[in-house]
Specification:
- The strands form four sheets. This protein has a seven-stranded antiparallel sheet with strand order 7-13-12-15-10-17-8. Strands 3-2-1-4-5-6 form a six-stranded mixed sheet, sandwiched between helices. It has a two-stranded antiparallel ribbon with strand order 9-16.
- Strand 2 (49-57) and strand 3 (61-69) form a beta hairpin.
- The chain is of the alpha+beta class and 346 residues long.
- Helix 1 (25-45) runs parallel beside helix 5 and helix 2 (88-99) runs parallel beside helix 3 (135-148).
- The chain is elongated and about 70 Å long.
- It has helices at 25-45, 88-99, 135-148, 162-170, 186-208, 227-233, 254-260, 301-305; strands at 7-16, 49-57, 61-69, 108-116, 153-159, 178-180, 236-237, 243-247, 252-253, 270-273, 278-280, 286-290, 295-298, 313-315, 323-328, 335-336, 341-345.
Amino acid sequence: MSGNQNYINHVALVLDASSSMSHLSRKVVEVADQQISYLARRSQELDQETRVTVYVFADKVECVIYDKDVLRMPSLKQLYRAGGMTALLAATLKSQRELAQTAQLYGDHSFLTFVLTDGQENASHRCPDAPARDQRELVQAVATMIETQEDNWTLAVLVPDQMGKREAMQCGFPKDNIAIWDATSTQGLEEAGQVILKATESFMVGRTKGIRGSRAVFSTGAETVNKDTIEAAGLIPVNPSQYQLIPVARETAIRDWVIECGHSYRTGCGFYQLTKPEKIQAQKQIAVLEKKTDQVYTGPQARALLGLPNTEVRVKPDHNDDFTIFVQSTSVNRKLVPHTRLLLMI
Protein backbone atom coordinates (compact mmCIF):
# COMPACT_ATOMS: atom_id res chain seq x y z
CA MET A 1 0.00 0.00 0.00
CA SER A 2 1.47 3.39 -0.89
CA GLY A 3 1.71 5.96 1.87
CA ASN A 4 -1.01 8.28 0.55
CA GLN A 5 -3.77 5.70 0.56
CA ASN A 6 -6.46 5.86 3.23
CA TYR A 7 -7.35 3.16 5.70
CA ILE A 8 -11.07 2.63 5.12
CA ASN A 9 -12.99 0.44 7.57
CA HIS A 10 -16.43 -0.93 6.76
CA VAL A 11 -17.94 -1.91 10.12
CA ALA A 12 -21.29 -3.71 10.16
CA LEU A 13 -23.62 -4.52 13.06
CA VAL A 14 -26.08 -7.34 12.31
CA LEU A 15 -28.60 -7.20 15.16
CA ASP A 16 -31.15 -9.78 16.24
CA ALA A 17 -34.59 -8.12 16.39
CA SER A 18 -36.64 -11.27 17.14
CA SER A 19 -39.43 -11.09 19.76
CA SER A 20 -37.20 -12.42 22.55
CA MET A 21 -35.05 -9.26 22.23
CA SER A 22 -38.03 -6.99 23.07
CA HIS A 23 -37.05 -6.55 26.73
CA LEU A 24 -33.61 -5.39 25.60
CA SER A 25 -34.58 -3.10 22.72
CA ARG A 26 -33.79 0.19 24.45
CA LYS A 27 -30.45 -1.20 25.56
CA VAL A 28 -29.66 -2.48 22.03
CA VAL A 29 -30.08 1.07 20.71
CA GLU A 30 -27.94 2.49 23.53
CA VAL A 31 -25.13 -0.06 23.02
CA ALA A 32 -25.15 0.39 19.23
CA ASP A 33 -25.10 4.20 19.57
CA GLN A 34 -22.20 3.95 22.05
CA GLN A 35 -20.29 1.76 19.58
CA ILE A 36 -20.89 4.29 16.82
CA SER A 37 -19.73 7.31 18.84
CA TYR A 38 -16.65 5.33 19.92
CA LEU A 39 -15.92 4.47 16.26
CA ALA A 40 -16.30 8.14 15.32
CA ARG A 41 -13.80 9.22 18.00
CA ARG A 42 -11.21 6.52 17.24
CA SER A 43 -11.48 7.08 13.47
CA GLN A 44 -10.46 10.69 13.99
CA GLU A 45 -7.71 9.86 16.48
CA LEU A 46 -6.22 7.13 14.24
CA ASP A 47 -6.92 9.01 11.00
CA GLN A 48 -8.99 6.17 9.55
CA GLU A 49 -12.19 6.50 7.57
CA THR A 50 -14.98 4.35 9.01
CA ARG A 51 -18.25 3.57 7.29
CA VAL A 52 -21.04 1.83 9.20
CA THR A 53 -23.74 -0.58 8.00
CA VAL A 54 -26.56 -1.86 10.23
CA TYR A 55 -28.79 -4.86 9.54
CA VAL A 56 -31.67 -5.96 11.76
CA PHE A 57 -33.17 -9.41 11.41
CA ALA A 58 -36.21 -11.34 12.63
CA ASP A 59 -38.38 -13.21 10.08
CA LYS A 60 -36.65 -11.23 7.38
CA VAL A 61 -33.39 -9.33 7.09
CA GLU A 62 -33.40 -5.58 6.63
CA CYS A 63 -30.50 -3.22 5.96
CA VAL A 64 -31.43 -0.01 7.82
CA ILE A 65 -28.14 1.89 7.28
CA TYR A 66 -25.69 1.17 4.48
CA ASP A 67 -22.01 2.14 4.43
CA LYS A 68 -22.58 5.56 6.02
CA ASP A 69 -19.77 7.81 7.24
CA VAL A 70 -19.51 7.18 11.00
CA LEU A 71 -19.30 10.93 11.64
CA ARG A 72 -22.79 11.35 10.15
CA MET A 73 -24.59 8.43 11.75
CA PRO A 74 -28.08 8.87 13.21
CA SER A 75 -29.19 7.12 16.41
CA LEU A 76 -30.70 3.68 15.88
CA LYS A 77 -33.68 4.76 17.99
CA GLN A 78 -36.13 4.91 15.07
CA LEU A 79 -34.61 1.94 13.26
CA TYR A 80 -34.70 -0.94 15.75
CA ARG A 81 -38.01 -2.70 16.51
CA ALA A 82 -38.15 -6.23 17.93
CA GLY A 83 -40.71 -8.83 16.81
CA GLY A 84 -40.68 -12.18 14.99
CA MET A 85 -38.43 -15.23 14.66
CA THR A 86 -34.63 -15.56 14.18
CA ALA A 87 -33.32 -15.72 10.59
CA LEU A 88 -29.71 -15.77 11.76
CA LEU A 89 -28.13 -17.63 8.83
CA ALA A 90 -29.98 -15.55 6.24
CA ALA A 91 -28.83 -12.36 8.01
CA THR A 92 -25.21 -13.51 8.05
CA LEU A 93 -25.28 -14.43 4.37
CA LYS A 94 -27.14 -11.34 3.17
CA SER A 95 -24.95 -8.89 5.14
CA GLN A 96 -21.73 -10.35 3.76
CA ARG A 97 -23.07 -10.77 0.22
CA GLU A 98 -24.25 -7.17 0.04
CA LEU A 99 -21.16 -5.70 1.69
CA ALA A 100 -19.03 -7.59 -0.84
CA GLN A 101 -20.54 -5.33 -3.50
CA THR A 102 -19.02 -2.24 -1.85
CA ALA A 103 -16.42 -0.55 -4.05
CA GLN A 104 -12.86 -1.03 -2.80
CA LEU A 105 -11.05 1.44 -5.02
CA TYR A 106 -8.23 3.74 -3.87
CA GLY A 107 -7.54 2.82 -0.30
CA ASP A 108 -6.80 -0.04 2.06
CA HIS A 109 -10.31 -1.35 2.71
CA SER A 110 -11.17 -3.72 5.54
CA PHE A 111 -14.53 -5.25 6.54
CA LEU A 112 -15.47 -6.03 10.17
CA THR A 113 -18.91 -7.49 10.96
CA PHE A 114 -20.42 -8.29 14.37
CA VAL A 115 -23.55 -10.47 14.41
CA LEU A 116 -25.43 -10.33 17.75
CA THR A 117 -28.13 -12.91 18.53
CA ASP A 118 -29.94 -14.06 21.67
CA GLY A 119 -31.17 -17.37 20.29
CA GLN A 120 -30.92 -20.20 17.81
CA GLU A 121 -31.59 -19.99 14.11
CA ASN A 122 -35.24 -20.84 13.41
CA ALA A 123 -36.51 -18.83 10.43
CA SER A 124 -33.97 -18.67 7.59
CA HIS A 125 -35.51 -21.61 5.72
CA ARG A 126 -38.53 -19.45 4.91
CA CYS A 127 -36.78 -16.11 4.69
CA PRO A 128 -36.84 -14.49 1.22
CA ASP A 129 -33.16 -13.54 1.62
CA ALA A 130 -31.93 -17.11 2.13
CA PRO A 131 -30.27 -18.84 -0.84
CA ALA A 132 -31.67 -22.25 0.21
CA ARG A 133 -34.61 -23.72 2.12
CA ASP A 134 -32.78 -26.58 3.78
CA GLN A 135 -31.07 -25.91 7.14
CA ARG A 136 -28.04 -28.07 6.28
CA GLU A 137 -27.57 -26.29 2.97
CA LEU A 138 -27.76 -22.91 4.73
CA VAL A 139 -25.13 -23.94 7.30
CA GLN A 140 -22.93 -25.15 4.45
CA ALA A 141 -23.46 -21.89 2.53
CA VAL A 142 -22.27 -19.84 5.54
CA ALA A 143 -19.26 -22.14 6.10
CA THR A 144 -18.25 -21.90 2.42
CA MET A 145 -18.64 -18.13 2.44
CA ILE A 146 -16.45 -17.70 5.56
CA GLU A 147 -13.82 -20.02 4.15
CA THR A 148 -13.60 -18.12 0.87
CA GLN A 149 -13.62 -14.58 2.26
CA GLU A 150 -10.52 -12.51 1.47
CA ASP A 151 -7.97 -11.70 4.18
CA ASN A 152 -9.45 -8.21 4.69
CA TRP A 153 -12.75 -9.64 5.99
CA THR A 154 -13.46 -10.30 9.67
CA LEU A 155 -16.77 -11.89 10.66
CA ALA A 156 -17.59 -12.34 14.35
CA VAL A 157 -20.67 -13.48 16.25
CA LEU A 158 -22.00 -13.09 19.81
CA VAL A 159 -24.22 -15.99 20.91
CA PRO A 160 -26.15 -16.64 24.16
CA ASP A 161 -24.78 -20.04 25.22
CA GLN A 162 -22.56 -23.06 24.48
CA MET A 163 -25.14 -24.48 22.11
CA GLY A 164 -25.04 -21.25 20.12
CA LYS A 165 -21.26 -21.47 20.10
CA ARG A 166 -21.35 -25.04 18.76
CA GLU A 167 -23.76 -24.00 16.01
CA ALA A 168 -21.56 -21.02 15.08
CA MET A 169 -18.54 -23.33 14.84
CA GLN A 170 -20.52 -25.68 12.57
CA CYS A 171 -21.19 -22.64 10.38
CA GLY A 172 -17.43 -22.13 10.05
CA PHE A 173 -16.97 -19.13 12.37
CA PRO A 174 -13.37 -19.22 13.69
CA LYS A 175 -13.57 -20.15 17.37
CA ASP A 176 -11.90 -16.92 18.52
CA ASN A 177 -14.46 -14.92 16.54
CA ILE A 178 -17.29 -16.33 18.69
CA ALA A 179 -18.17 -14.81 22.08
CA ILE A 180 -20.87 -15.85 24.55
CA TRP A 181 -22.96 -13.09 26.14
CA ASP A 182 -25.63 -13.14 28.84
CA ALA A 183 -28.82 -12.49 26.86
CA THR A 184 -31.07 -12.46 29.94
CA SER A 185 -30.32 -8.95 31.20
CA THR A 186 -29.48 -5.39 30.19
CA GLN A 187 -26.27 -5.84 32.21
CA GLY A 188 -25.35 -8.78 29.95
CA LEU A 189 -25.95 -6.65 26.86
CA GLU A 190 -23.86 -3.82 28.35
CA GLU A 191 -21.00 -6.32 28.80
CA ALA A 192 -21.47 -7.60 25.23
CA GLY A 193 -21.09 -3.98 24.11
CA GLN A 194 -17.77 -3.79 25.98
CA VAL A 195 -16.59 -7.00 24.30
CA ILE A 196 -17.42 -5.55 20.86
CA LEU A 197 -15.70 -2.28 21.77
CA LYS A 198 -12.55 -4.07 22.89
CA ALA A 199 -12.48 -6.19 19.73
CA THR A 200 -12.96 -3.09 17.57
CA GLU A 201 -10.16 -1.29 19.38
CA SER A 202 -7.64 -4.06 18.73
CA PHE A 203 -8.89 -4.26 15.12
CA MET A 204 -8.40 -0.52 14.51
CA VAL A 205 -5.01 -0.41 16.21
CA GLY A 206 -4.02 -3.49 14.18
CA ARG A 207 -5.03 -1.63 11.01
CA THR A 208 -2.43 1.05 11.71
CA LYS A 209 0.18 -1.75 11.73
CA GLY A 210 -0.97 -3.10 8.38
CA ILE A 211 -3.13 -5.96 9.73
CA ARG A 212 -6.15 -6.32 7.40
CA GLY A 213 -8.35 -8.94 9.08
CA SER A 214 -8.52 -11.20 12.11
CA ARG A 215 -9.55 -14.74 12.96
CA ALA A 216 -9.11 -14.08 16.67
CA VAL A 217 -11.07 -10.90 17.15
CA PHE A 218 -12.34 -11.75 20.66
CA SER A 219 -9.02 -12.99 22.02
CA THR A 220 -7.92 -10.81 24.88
CA GLY A 221 -5.21 -11.98 27.11
CA ALA A 222 -2.04 -13.94 26.74
CA GLU A 223 -3.12 -16.07 23.82
CA THR A 224 -3.15 -13.04 21.51
CA VAL A 225 0.51 -12.35 22.14
CA ASN A 226 3.20 -13.82 19.93
CA LYS A 227 6.40 -12.70 18.21
CA ASP A 228 4.53 -11.28 15.19
CA THR A 229 1.96 -9.36 17.21
CA ILE A 230 4.73 -7.92 19.41
CA GLU A 231 6.54 -6.71 16.33
CA ALA A 232 3.34 -5.42 14.69
CA ALA A 233 2.32 -3.52 17.82
CA GLY A 234 5.69 -1.76 18.00
CA LEU A 235 6.23 -2.85 21.60
CA ILE A 236 9.29 -1.53 23.36
CA PRO A 237 11.70 -4.10 24.85
CA VAL A 238 12.76 -2.87 28.28
CA ASN A 239 16.50 -2.78 28.92
CA PRO A 240 17.23 -5.76 31.24
CA SER A 241 19.19 -3.44 33.56
CA GLN A 242 15.95 -1.58 34.27
CA TYR A 243 13.92 -4.44 35.77
CA GLN A 244 14.19 -7.46 38.00
CA LEU A 245 12.05 -10.57 38.27
CA ILE A 246 11.61 -11.63 41.88
CA PRO A 247 10.10 -15.03 42.81
CA VAL A 248 7.24 -14.75 45.31
CA ALA A 249 7.69 -17.26 48.13
CA ARG A 250 4.52 -16.65 50.12
CA GLU A 251 1.32 -14.59 50.12
CA THR A 252 2.33 -11.11 51.19
CA ALA A 253 1.66 -7.44 50.41
CA ILE A 254 3.61 -6.11 47.43
CA ARG A 255 5.43 -3.31 49.29
CA ASP A 256 6.47 -5.62 52.15
CA TRP A 257 7.87 -8.19 49.73
CA VAL A 258 9.83 -5.63 47.71
CA ILE A 259 11.40 -4.22 50.89
CA GLU A 260 12.03 -7.70 52.32
CA CYS A 261 13.91 -8.59 49.13
CA GLY A 262 16.23 -5.62 49.69
CA HIS A 263 14.75 -3.05 47.29
CA SER A 264 13.19 0.33 47.89
CA TYR A 265 9.50 0.66 47.03
CA ARG A 266 7.79 3.46 45.13
CA THR A 267 4.16 3.34 44.03
CA GLY A 268 3.77 1.78 40.59
CA CYS A 269 7.23 0.18 40.43
CA GLY A 270 5.86 -3.34 40.98
CA PHE A 271 3.94 -5.43 38.43
CA TYR A 272 2.17 -8.58 39.62
CA GLN A 273 1.64 -11.66 37.48
CA LEU A 274 -1.94 -12.03 36.23
CA THR A 275 -3.24 -15.33 37.63
CA LYS A 276 -7.05 -14.98 37.53
CA PRO A 277 -9.62 -13.00 35.52
CA GLU A 278 -9.81 -9.45 36.90
CA LYS A 279 -10.70 -5.87 36.09
CA ILE A 280 -7.83 -3.68 34.95
CA GLN A 281 -8.28 0.10 35.15
CA ALA A 282 -7.49 2.38 32.20
CA GLN A 283 -4.46 3.99 33.85
CA LYS A 284 -2.75 0.70 34.77
CA GLN A 285 0.32 -0.18 32.73
CA ILE A 286 0.71 -3.68 31.31
CA ALA A 287 3.95 -5.55 30.66
CA VAL A 288 4.41 -8.84 28.80
CA LEU A 289 7.26 -11.22 29.51
CA GLU A 290 8.68 -13.61 26.96
CA LYS A 291 9.16 -16.79 29.01
CA LYS A 292 12.06 -18.18 26.99
CA THR A 293 14.28 -15.10 27.30
CA ASP A 294 12.77 -13.24 30.31
CA GLN A 295 12.62 -10.20 28.02
CA VAL A 296 9.98 -7.70 29.17
CA TYR A 297 8.00 -5.51 26.75
CA THR A 298 5.94 -2.53 27.85
CA GLY A 299 4.55 0.80 26.63
CA PRO A 300 0.99 1.94 25.85
CA GLN A 301 0.92 -0.51 22.94
CA ALA A 302 0.97 -3.42 25.40
CA ARG A 303 -2.70 -2.68 26.21
CA ALA A 304 -3.56 -2.51 22.52
CA LEU A 305 -1.68 -5.74 21.87
CA LEU A 306 -3.97 -7.53 24.33
CA GLY A 307 -6.98 -5.85 22.74
CA LEU A 308 -7.71 -3.69 25.79
CA PRO A 309 -9.54 -0.39 25.28
CA ASN A 310 -8.54 2.67 27.31
CA THR A 311 -11.32 2.00 29.80
CA GLU A 312 -11.67 -0.37 32.75
CA VAL A 313 -11.95 -3.90 31.38
CA ARG A 314 -12.02 -7.51 32.56
CA VAL A 315 -9.01 -9.57 31.42
CA LYS A 316 -8.35 -13.30 31.60
CA PRO A 317 -4.83 -14.67 32.13
CA ASP A 318 -5.40 -17.02 29.17
CA HIS A 319 -2.80 -19.70 29.02
CA ASN A 320 0.02 -18.93 26.65
CA ASP A 321 3.10 -21.11 26.31
CA ASP A 322 5.40 -18.24 25.40
CA PHE A 323 4.27 -15.10 27.25
CA THR A 324 3.15 -14.01 30.71
CA ILE A 325 1.10 -10.88 31.46
CA PHE A 326 2.07 -8.55 34.31
CA VAL A 327 -0.12 -5.72 35.61
CA GLN A 328 1.09 -2.60 37.37
CA SER A 329 0.07 -2.38 41.02
CA THR A 330 -0.75 1.06 42.38
CA SER A 331 -1.70 -0.31 45.79
CA VAL A 332 0.93 -0.98 48.48
CA ASN A 333 -1.20 -3.79 49.94
CA ARG A 334 -1.72 -5.80 46.76
CA LYS A 335 -1.49 -9.46 47.84
CA LEU A 336 1.06 -11.40 45.80
CA VAL A 337 0.34 -15.03 44.90
CA PRO A 338 2.96 -17.60 45.99
CA HIS A 339 4.93 -19.35 43.19
CA THR A 340 4.44 -16.41 40.80
CA ARG A 341 7.01 -13.74 40.02
CA LEU A 342 7.01 -10.03 40.72
CA LEU A 343 8.29 -7.70 38.01
CA LEU A 344 10.12 -4.78 39.61
CA MET A 345 10.97 -1.74 37.49
CA ILE A 346 14.19 -0.25 38.85
